[in-house]
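Repro:
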Amino acid sequence: MTTSETHAEIREAVRRLCARFPGEYWREQDRNRAYPKAFVDALTEAGWLSVLIPEAYGGAGLDLSAACAVLEEIHRSGGNGAACHAQMYTMGTLLRHGSEAQKSALLPKIASGEIRLQAFGVTEPASGTDTTRIRTFAKREGDHYVVNGSKIWISRAEHSDYMVLLCRTAPRTEERPSDGMSVLLVDMREARGKGLTVQPVRTMLNHATTELFFDNLEVPAANLIGEEGRGFRYILDGMNAERILIAAECIGDGRFFIDRASAYAKDREVFGRPIGENQGVQFPIARAHVQVTAASLMVERAAALFEAGEPCGSEANMAKLTASEASWFAADTCLQTHGGFGFAEDFDIERKFRETRLYQVAPISTNLILSHVATHVLGLPKSF
């Protein structure tokens, strides 16, 4: 893989890889609540999980829009990039703010697949999306930090070697609530059983979701990313990348549903003719296509700003909102088009229907995005 490849070539290559993992594979993973290791290994070997890692560290050195293309095609092919997408969006924090020693130690091994950086530890039971109120605290003691607290909804913790962890290193103040937070790189292999407990949380999705408990976990001070107390600013790069990449996944989901609905509507005959001849069937599918196409342009805009190093928080949020709502409308339309067959596992519609619904809730809820746009873009007074 070279940086001269166009996104069209990337998309075609990813589609070929995904063809090796058809619906039967994903249904089995979903049924058994299994981690799709074979799929993740194949993506790693092909270099798709290291597209954002610079060539000097063994990656492809491509931009965020290339990563968006990879994840979009995984989802359009019927797969689920949630098993590995964190390895892309955590790069926003590590690449921009990590030290040279940290990048030299981790990035080549991530690129080769020797280690996985798949866990992003931010959300807590008592804070939810109010990130400034997290309580997990890291106290500096000599050459290490002692971490105590908990996190929830942390996906892939059981399948990751490292985690990007946001914690407090100073108490919260009302004057500057985002100050006093820091980012630590936690070696999960060393932490398990030595102050870190990982507890699986069963959900309607096969996302390997967990709750984490920290009990006097020692983390080397050398694992601090950037400066102490400035972690919220660093984590925003990861959050913006996360929202843009997940928006791209939603575009892929939306196109998956539109493809399936269109094909079924052409072939399925009721009352002696294809149901796709009926405008009552045509119009929702057409509207889904319009909405997904429009949302994809918002994703492209947000990715372009991120790549240019420009402020993109509002655009990342709007991309995620428009894409998640477009994919959900497409999902509902596809299920309605298939009728009873849409609920059958063998059609893959019900699985993807469940998977794409998540993204109106995570990684940030639709209402929080609307609040951000109201106050930060439109200048309306804050409601909280």
